[in-house]
Protein 1
Amino acid sequence: MELTILVIKSLVILAVFGITLLIATYSTYAERKVAAFLQDRIGPNRAGPFGLLQPIADAGKMFFKEDFIPAQANKWLFILGPCLAMLTALMSSAVIPFGDSIRYASFDVPVQGIDVNVGVLYVFGVVSLGVYGVMIGGWASNNKFSLLGAIRAASQNISYEVALGLSIIAILMMTGSLSLRHIVNEQNGFLQWNVFTQPLGFVIFLTCAFAECNRTPFDLPECETELVGGYHTEYSSMKLGFYLFAEYINMFTSSAIISTLYFGGFQYPFMHQVHDALVNSLGSTVGHNIATGIGTAVLFGKIFFFIFFFMWVRWTIPRFRFDQLMNLGWKTLIPLSILNVVLTGAGLLFDKFKYATWLIVIVMIVLAATNAIKAPRRKPVAVPQV
Amino acid sequence: MLTNRSKQVSNKEMTLAERMYLPAVLGGLAITIRHFFMKKATIQYPEVKRYLGPVFRGHHVLKRDEQGRERCTACGLCAVACPAEAISMVAAERKKGEETLYREEKYAAVYEINMLRCIFCGLCEEACPKQAVYLRHDRMVPVFTERDQVIYGKDRLVEKLDDRYIRNNPDAQATPTEPTLSRSVG
Amino acid sequence: MNQFNTFLASFKNLTTAGYLFYGLGLITLISAISVVTAKNPIHSVLALIFTFFCLTGHYMLLNAQFLAIVNIIVYAGAIMVLFLFAIMFLNLKEEDEEAKTNVTKMAAVIVGGVLMVLLLSIFNYAPVGTFNPASFDAKTGLVERLGIVLYSDYILPFELASILFLVAMVGAVMLGKREAGDPHF
């Protein structure tokens, strides 16, 4: 009976691991397709139907390229860099609750790698380690551009971690738990989703997630206009592949975490009614498992939307300048998230009112509107006619 | 101001809404998502080919006249006109009994075009006094992989009798490399 | 020698956690020693990070999940990144090591030796913390208990520390603000 739980648990962990890798693989394909579609093109369509074998072709190409280590590079750290990037990227999906629970005989096994009661902090810790891969790789390359990319990555990640952590604190205050499963269960009911109780926190978290993943508009560590290739200038073959792949895994994990923290995870409207109906018609085991499956599918729908959103933003917004990045992080997001925490706390203290932060949103909209009205009209630019 | 398209740059202080970035970001996202659903401009090249027009300069052809005689008289004007010096030829005198083969008394026994040198400028076509050399608008020179495939001799240049080429064929709305549509009646 | 034999004998009837503790302790010691002995400062920092991971493992063995994760976030995730950040800017050429004269070596040996004697004597006399297995609550290290302790017994120092951090953060933001007349970059 211990063994049954262990088997189901290890199957879940294996499935999570495999799905993470699979989704990251197909994210590379999706990225190219989305980029193409947003630019009125078609994108890869030669390898297999609709180009579906393109990731395999890319991986094959990566494997067969020359694996080059620069002469003056620190060899072992040069190899360690991409390995660390990959390792930390893969670790964080362990605590995400991908579904309710699988019922087998008399056990309920949660669809989750491990349900630690510090899940949010675990994710946070792993994310904060993610920068080591970039830093060590960039330094070990013995290249000025790589080093600059590594330093940018380090300063950017540390700066945005602060705002990231502060924006989560408001959620933790409302939930009173660090366990991701508990946070998901707390958001039952559509209007209880944290995106509705924490609109500002969501925007801050989303922005910081972009920065932590080194995605456009915050991809300064690999800014090719200034730094050749950034921290992976000297990398080739599958080591480069690991870096690129780690970015997509990070994107998947952050999408999963955004869905979990702010969009109710595997919850969907009328979930309990569906669950009850399924249990009534199919029995408590099969019905429950199917309901869990629907919840997992819904969660993956949310995750896919956010992966798409990451790509959508990438092909819309140009890169920030580095001082703009730092200004946004330190002078805008951190004060705003502190304000968010204070207002949430005040709202909770005053009659457990969860929607207090809408006040900030309303005030900001009003301020922006009045400011826009009061601002002197831009003189229409006189375009000389021929 | 040469093009009359220059715009005055405004360095005005941004309003609060603009400094919040979010409205502008959302506007940008709206624009890109509209393009997501637009019709794509791509033409799937090897499967679908675009008609390049009747003035496209493709594969060379040495024309025959209505009775099937080679028109070329080996005057060498095309070789002189060629800026890439891709054309070379050896002239020969027509013998008795060859009147059905060659139109003029002198003909090109060897006529070679080096396709590595040719730039498809069409000056040979312009220079030819006998309307013998044309660059077909409906066929491209195929990709070659071997060096001995590069120099095209008469075997590959002279018009085949069952595959005549007529420039002004109104039906020849053909894309290059599709010979089926360009076969004409005479 | 006798003590060593009893130690070896006690090794045989250890629990899984006990073996894990000794294994982890060995790795911790090796990595901690390599922090000091590594020639390259970057290797030294990496060994230090690894040491922090081992300490996190020890916290895990003690069922103190919160401390374990916070140790990773704060030390490995933030402070060591800054260490690495600073050391990457150093010029790591051999000829720059002007600090390694005989005088500094002597001073280092004396200071280190004195510190070791001091620590040994402290550990010799200090009482080793014990616990009562019968009344011990395994959930002591979990975040809920920690929160209750922090917000009841230690509320004043906790709030003071948090105000200190808030002030530090506001100060960092203020330092970043450009004043009128500062050059534009």
Protein 2
Amino acid sequence: MAKEKDNSFTKLVEPHLNSLYSTALRMTHNLHDAEDLVQDTLYKAFRSINQFQQNTNFRAWIFRIMVNTFITAYRKAVKQPMKISYDDMEEFYLYKRLDETVSLQETSKEEFLENIFDDDIKNALESLPYQFRLVVLLCDVEGFSYNEIAEIVDAPLGTIMSRLYRGRKLLQRYLWKYAKERGYIKDEFSQKT
Amino acid sequence: MSSAKKHEHYNCADIEALAQRYVDGQLNDYENRLFEEHLEYCLPCDKKIQFELKLKEIVHIKGREMIPDEKLKLKLKNLFTDLL
């Protein structure tokens, strides 16, 4: 009987292991904590599998457990959201900056995106305040819908959309900053940083 | 956002207001139709939206991490057998 439970749980969990691990790593910033977070999540999920209703969304269910585990374990460690200036939170931030860049006229903007280093994307994601990071990861990297994210994070839909909006704008701002630091952007910009 | 629905056609400001939901595939059929109709004749909006879609795709691909080795994968897979 116990073996049966073990097998069916393995089958349910296995397709999501990489997603859980990937999100855990982006949230905790290091391999060791990510492994611990996934382990804790799996233990809790295994113990409360009876509460999972068959034929409902297992992926969202187990992500919710991981998010709760993360928030409980890291609440003290997680810094208070830093004060962020939202002055540059305009729509299409990165597109507009690239559009103004004379030295990029020869290259297409899509080409610019394709040339961004994996590490720059990862660093930009990890630099986001954790509430924003979480929704951007769940939406853009893991492909959850707004309703699923609202369920996982236990926040209203409006809050999810607003965090996603701000998170993405910040992400674009970081990518723009990295591009300048790496010397992709050769123009002198005195105001837009 | 709901005010956008009053128009028979979307203007550039509507596109900007609805961009996030479009990129995330969260518009309803009616909104989606009006949105794409605008992109067909407005090149500047179309270019911006194509850029946002591409950026989302890049984040999706490059932001993901794979479990580094089979050993860890196996460990995670078998971890609850200890509980039995």
